[in-house]
Specification:
Layout: H1 14-19, H2 24-29, E1 34-38, E2 40-42, H3 52-62, H4 70-89, E3 92-102, E4 105-114, E5 123-127, H5 133-150, E6 157-163, E7 167-174, E8 179-183, E9 187-188, H6 193-204, E10 210-212
Parallel strand pairs: 1-8, 5-6
Antiparallel strand pairs: 2-10, 3-4, 4-5, 6-7, 7-8, 7-9
Helix pairs in contact: 3-4, 4-6
């Protein structure tokens, strides 16, 4: 009989899942979810958008600031990007947004982008502590599972991303299959800024689709 990873009767916040030195597939099984990995082809926003000014701003700021702390990465890379996305998509940005589903699924969402298109087009973004994308994705997966139970949306897919500021990785929760897929693609900032923005805006516009990369 497989032993439980989570201790009976113990409370867990989202940030504590980052600290657990466990196999993410085994952890997600505790919540009844599977974990897959694939190189995804994500639909991009095809409309006009001003991304070059943001790229220039970030590149200029990087000449003055060393990204040696989480605060620096958040203020120089993450916050300006998400605010620009919200401005283009007319979305709202919730920061340190508290939710509680159960004693094992509770805590603050780093960033939660809420679209004017309704709950079908929201995006969860978390910052990977210690610039650790692997453990950061595990935390993202748990938070997506919490959103699956918390949200009133009937959308079949929930979208999320984990970032170190200069690197982004997407995660997608399929609510019918009860599976979370980790995208093998990485998006760099500022090098891949245009592609990253196009994906995020497509999601918030309710026009995102998922395909397997050829």
């Amino acid at each position: 009989m497989r032993r439980s990873i989570l201790k009976e009767g113990q409370s867990y916040t989202f940030s504590e899942y980052f600290k657990l030195a466990v196999d993410p597939e085994d952890l997600l099984r505790e919540f009844g979810f599977g974990l897959g990995k694939a190189q995804l082809a994500l639909t991009s926003f095809a409309g006009e958008m001003d991304w070059r000014s943001l790229q220039s701003q970030i590149e200029e700021n990087l000449t003055y600031v060393d990204l040696t702390s989480e605060t620096a990465r958040r203020e120089i890379l993450v916050a300006p990007l998400l605010l620009r996305i919200c401005r283009i998509a007319q979305a709202k940005l919730k920061i340190e947004y508290p939710i509680q589903v159960s004693d094992r699924l509770k805590g603050n969402l780093d960033y939660y982008l809420q679209s004017q298109q309704g709950d079908k087009a929201n995006v969860l973004v978390i910052e990977a502590k210690q610039a650790d994308l692997t453990r950061g994705f595990t935390q993202l997966a748990v938070e997506l599972i919490a959103l699956d139970q918390w949200t009133e949306s009937e959308a079949p897919v929930l979208w999320g991303a984990v970032t170190t500021g200069d690197i982004w990785k997407f995660g997608i929760l399929d609510r019918h299959q009860k599976c979370i897929t980790q995208d093998l693609n990485l998006y760099r900032v500022p090098a891949d800024l245009e592609a990253l923005m196009q994906i995020l805006i497509a999601v918030l516009a309710g026009r995102a689709a998922i395909g397997a990369a050829s």
